[in-house]
Amino acid sequence: MAEDLEPLSREDRLFTKGDxxxxxxxxxxxxxxxxxxxxxxxxxxxxxxxHVERTSSDQNxxxxxxxxxxxxxxxxxxxxxxxxARRLLARAGGRPRGHDIRRLWADCRQLLIExxxxxxxxxxDELTRLIAEFADVDPGxxxxxxxxxxxxxxxxxxxxxxxxxxxxxxQRLLGHSNPSTLLSIYSWVTKGEADIATTExxxxxxxxxxxxxxx
Length: 215
Prior knowledge:
By secondary structure, the protein is mostly helical. It is 58% helix and 0% strand. The chain has one domain (33-194). The protein is built from 6 helices and no strands. It is globular, with a radius of gyration of 22 Å. The termini are far apart. The mean pLDDT is 81.
């Protein structure tokens, strides 16, 4: 494929659109990009793992971006679920900051219990365990980005082998397989936010109609 590329020229640009429309990605195409970003990170990681499973190759290289992308998904999804749960509970506060997924999930978990107090917490406990395992290996979202930390120490010291089929655990954490997964919670809570948005729109529409009638 590289042989077919023309030499670089002054006309080349990185961030531009092209005539081959199927390769043009639409940016800022939604009112709130959090869901699009987080889904993109997960989808990219899924594709990397699928490549390894299909070809039995490149596992030593793609393990790092794949795990980084999965972790990034967990972080963004958890922040967005927290924000949405706060809206459902009529609580102040936007999306939380920071990269500590253990703390982020702990806060999110408590809000989910308050949103739906009659639901069992056993499924949430499994999510808590898996997120904690991820946080133990990569507490600051750096271990799969750089081979060393800010002090020059090996990022994944002591780890030698990681069977990428163990990513099945991550996929269970993120996927659609049962209602306790993070992605299913994401969909459920987002639906609740959509109901709020519909109510707010109907209220606004009623006020606009009354104002127009009064005029």
